[in-house]
Specification:
By secondary structure, this protein is mostly helical. The protein has twelve helices and no strands.
């Protein structure tokens, strides 16, 4: 089966989808994305953060390659003429997302709770929207800006209440915030390749390259040491399959059909899912103030997703 005929995304004229479908895919994307913080915390009880990430991306890349070979997708074939620049952009986006953003975030999570990490990452939509409007000329409208402001206000409220109750490690928080900036830049780069390259090809470029980039760092800082227990293997397999492959493909779909700003806007849901999962699976405490802060976040996301009038 030819990959270009079966897996390539539709041309720009056919890219529009209903707000409901966009919301469903985006909500699932945010849930799976937020679950990675929980799985990461579990896995880091058996190995270092860079080792876990490197093995995760290498395993995900190998699985995509094997799946493509077995089904005849041809995702490992040569690029078409003129696609060299797009492949480099896809590579840069993958390294920023998986290497810089996740690398810094996972190291930061050594001293920052998983729930708070999800909250910090949810600050990326505001920056992504501003950069998309400036660099990509993506119109967003006053409702979108109002929605992002409301969501960001909810995030600030949660962060403020958390800081008053149990201050987090400043160094870890700084690493996560720097990584979040890298995530915003990567979203803009993905906007340039989504729909112009096969999504499986993009994943095959981004995931193994990120694993190879982190491998020497993991060996230097952590000696690639692991404890081969259930926590390690469970975390590794879940993150490589559901998180790495799943969120990469969903993000490309969201960026393609909704634009960089709307795709990033779903990170506003991270505090909701991140805190709920942290409570249910890690036993982290979530104050009532977090629930109050979730209300403007959800309302803001609704404004972001409302279709603009012609």
């Amino acid at each position: 089966m030819n990959s270009g005929a079966s897996l390539a995304l539709p041309p720009p004229a056919a890219a529009a989808v209903s707000p409901l479908r966009l919301a469903l895919v985006g909500t699932l994307f945010s849930f799976v994305w937020s679950s990675a913080f929980i799985a990461g915390k579990v896995g880091m009880s058996s190995t270092g953060p860079l080792t876990l990430l490197s093995l995760r991306f290498l395993l995900a890349g190998a699985l995509i390659w094997l799946l493509g070979r077995s089904l005849g997708w041809g995702v490992s074939g040569r690029a078409a003429p003129g696609q060299g620049r797009l492949l480099l952009i896809a590579l840069a986006a993958g390294l920023l997302t998986n290497g810089v953003y996740l690398g810094l975030t996972y190291v930061g999570m050594l001293t920052v709770p998983a729930g708070l990490t999800a909250i910090l990452v949810s600050t990326s939509p505001l920056l992504t929207s501003a950069l998309a409007a400036w660099c990509l000329k993506e119109g967003f409208g006053w409702r979108g800006l109002l929605g992002l402001a409301a969501g960001f206000a909810g995030v600030v409220w949660i962060m403020g209440q958390r800081a008053l109750g149990a201050p987090a490690d400043g160094y870890g928080v700084a690493l996560i915030l720097i990584g979040t900036v890298a995530l915003s830049a990567a979203t803009l780069l993905n906007r340039q390749v989504a729909g112009r390259l096969d999504p499986w090809r993009i994943a095959l470029i981004q995931l193994p390259a990120s694993g190879l980039a982190l491998l020497p760092l993991a060996w230097w800082r952590e000696g690639l040491a692991i404890v081969p227990d259930a926590a390690f293997f469970g975390s590794l397999v879940y993150q490589a399959t559901v998180v790495s492959i799943g969120t990469t493909l969903m993000l490309l779909w969201l960026v393609r059909h909704g634009g960089a700003a709307k795709a990033s806007g779903f990170h506003l849901l991270n505090p909701v899912f991140g805190t709920l999962l942290a409570v249910g699976l890690l036993g982290e405490s979530v104050p009532f103030s977090d629930l109050l802060g979730a209300l403007p976040i959800i309302a803001g996301l609704g404004l972001v997703l409302l279709p603009r009038r012609g």
